[in-house]
Structures are given as structure tokens and as C-alpha cells.
Amino acid sequence: MNELLSLKNKNYALSGGTGTLGGSIAEYLVQNGAKVLLLGRSMDKLEKKQTELNNIVADSTFIFKVDVMDEQALVALREEIKKEFTHLDGLVNLAGGNIPGATLKPDQTIRDIALADTRKVVDINLFGTVMPTIILSEIMVAQGYGSIINISSMAAKQSISRVLGYSMAKGAIDIFTKWMANELASKHGDKIRVNAIAPGFFIGNQNKRLLTNEDGSYTERGNSIIKNTPMGRFGDASELNGMVHYLLSDAASFVTGSVFDVDGGFSSFSGV
After folding, report:
1. CA–CA separation, 154 vs 202, rounded Å?
2. Using N-to-C axis directions, what is the helix angle for 20-31 and 241-248, rounded to 10°?
3. Which residue of 48, 58, 93, 234 is surrounded by the most CB atoms within 10 Å?
């Protein structure tokens, strides 16, 4: 493989690496010779994923039980990574998602939204990225290089019904990505990069019931998304891997502060 694209012997930290998209990315990274540091709150999920990944490539995966919303825990994690590893080449912030109380039902109005749940969704999707980025990027500043990938959304680009908190948080992720890209490159050198990926619609555990019925057919919302996706289908989790690979690799050495759509054309289509 071209050295510009090589991920061999690189260390990448992933939050949310036990989910559908994160799990696929983790598998891809170890298959390409990288070491993966999985960050999460559930030791059971972390251990299960570690076993799966180590079965693909022995001794490829390390797990750290940490809440990405806990500043002190993240500082302790930073020090542990510095002690146990010689370098941290990248961070992929995949922690996030939605919760039922922050998702309006089709027959509800904004007055029915659970504000406390909406705040929780904003916190995990925004500060669950802001906090690990700020704290773990200190390792990259010290070593002089690193690539950070945040996860945006189609909901950051246009109004998507029912998911107010999620949309607000992902809109903020876009500007945080640009802000941090400027901050790190201008003050700490051109080898520290921050970008984001905006996935289109992928069926995972959190949105499965929103998009599919019990019999596997699409819900009204699922059909609406397909109608507005020029490729006419949902994405497969593996279809994010190529963009992740590019942004983590040295092939993207002059790329920072950008948000890349991986959406089957959804963001390019007006619906008419």
C-alpha cells in the first residue's frame, strides 16, 4: 500500500466504537494494521468488542472504561494513554445518538418535547465530542501530529423533523470542527488536523424502529428518506470506512476544517 495511505502501527482512539458505525470502523482499522483504543461506559460491551477485534487481529485492541462527559476521567485517560503508548495518531468521536423523550412522535408538537431529555441529547452529541477532543488533543500537540474526526449529520445541514436536540448538537459539531481545526493548526502546526464526516442514513440499533417495521419493511419515515436519497437506499456501515481511512491517513495532509458528506446524494437533492 502507498505509504501515504498506510495505517500500520498507528494508534487510534474511538469513542462509540461498540455501536454499528463505530464497530465497523474499528474492524476496518485493525484489518489495516492499526491498534484501536476503545473508549466507552459499558465494560461488557467493550470486552465483547475487544474479543471480536482481537479474533480478527491478535492484540490489536485495548479498552478503557470512561465517560466522555467526565472531565476528570478524561484527564486520567489522557495520562494513561501517554504512559502506555508512545503515540496517539488519531481520535474518532463516535459517541452520541438520540433518546425517545427527545424525539417527537408524528402526532406531537414542539410543546410535547421532553426538555430534560433534549438537553441530554445535546450534551452527549456535542460535549461528548468537545471534551475528549480538547483533552486528548493535548497528546497530539505534544507529539506534533494527529488527526481528529468528528461525526456530523444530515440533520446539521437542513431541518429534519422530530429530532430537535440531535439537530442542534450536530449543527454545533460542524462549527466546533472548523473552530478546532483553526485553533490547532494555527497555534500548534500543520500536522494536527480536525475534520468531520456527515453520514447519510444508516440503519443501526438506535434508529431501527424509526426506519423499519417489525416485518423489515420501511416505515413512512424510512420511505421518505429513500425517496430523497438519489442512490435509492440506506448506507451500509462499511461505506464510511473509506472516508475515515483517508482522513486519518497522511494522504489528507492538507485537509482540515472540512465536513464530508457520505450520504448517497441526500444532501445534494432538493426533493423535487
Report:
1. 11
2. 60
3. 93
Task: State the sign of the Cα–Cα–Cα–Cα dihedral 182, 151, 260, 87.
Answer: positive
Residue 272 lies in a domain: no
Report the C-alpha gap between 96 and 13 in whole angstroms.
Answer: 15
Residue 242: domain span:
3-200+235-265
Q: In this predicted structure, what is the pLDDT of residue 1?
A: 54
- β-pair partners for 90: 12, 147
Residues of the chain with pLDDT under 50: none
Cross-strand partners of 63: 38
Please give the tally of structural domains in the chain.
1
Catalytic: 246?
A: no
89, part of any domain? yes
pTM of the full structure:
0.95
Question: Is 253 inside any structural domain?
Answer: yes
Residue 70 lies in a domain: yes
pLDDT in tens, 72-110: 999 999 999 999 999 999 999 999 988 888 888 889 999
- The pLDDT value given to residue 251: 97
DSSP 3-state assignment of 257? coil
User: Do β-strands 61-65 and 90-93 pair in parallel, antiparallel, or remain unpaired?
Assistant: unpaired
Instruction: Please say whether the beta carbons of 195 and 252 come within 8 A.
Output: yes
Q: Hey, CA dihedral for 151, 77, 187, 168, is it positive or negative?
A: positive
Set of cell numbers at residue 78: 489522557
Q: What is the CATH number of the domain that holds 69?
A: 3.40.50.720
Amino acid (one-letter) located at 19: G
What grid cell was written down for 10?
A: 498507528
Residue of 12, 28, 145, 166 marked active site: 166
> How many whole angstroms separate alpha carbon 108 and alpha carbon 136?
40
